[in-house]
Amino acid sequence: MEERTTYRVEGRGPAFDEKEAGGHSHSLTIANRERVHITGVVGVDSFDDEEVNLETEMGLLSIRGEELQIKQLDLEKGQFAVEGYINALQYATPRQRGARQPRSRSFLERLLR
């Protein structure tokens, strides 16, 4: 029988009040170090088979691993999923409590323009 370990982290976006935040929240689920599902994704800054850099409601997130493949990307719903062997997840900026600053266009938005 395959052992399944799931880790889940949840939090509110930069504005703690759901009405101010537009109802957005951020969650991160890891299954067996092989699949990561994230909500509250605002944009994808860069990606390759060893690293994915995301902008989330809680700050910049870097996912490092091996043979990473994006399986789901829906920026309207803020959902993202990646598969591969996950080595590390790291937030680059601390969570902010103030109003969110306008963001520049993401790598994918510039690429698919």
What does this structure look like?
The protein has about 110 residues and is mainly beta. About 5% of the residues lie in helices and about 55% in strands. It contains one helix and seven strands; from the N terminus they run βββββββα. It has one helix spanning about 105-110; strands spanning about 5-10, 25-30, 35-40, 40-45, 50-55, 60-75, 80-90. The protein has a seven-stranded antiparallel beta sheet with strand order 1-2-3-7-6-5-4. The protein is globular, with a radius of gyration of 14 Å.
Percent of residues in beta strands: over 45%
Number of strands: 7
Biggest sheet descriptor: 7 strands, antiparallel
Helix amount: under 10%
Average pLDDT, all residues: 78
Q: Give unreliable regions as ranges.
A: 12-22
Order of strands side by side in the largest beta sheet?
1-2-3-7-6-5-4
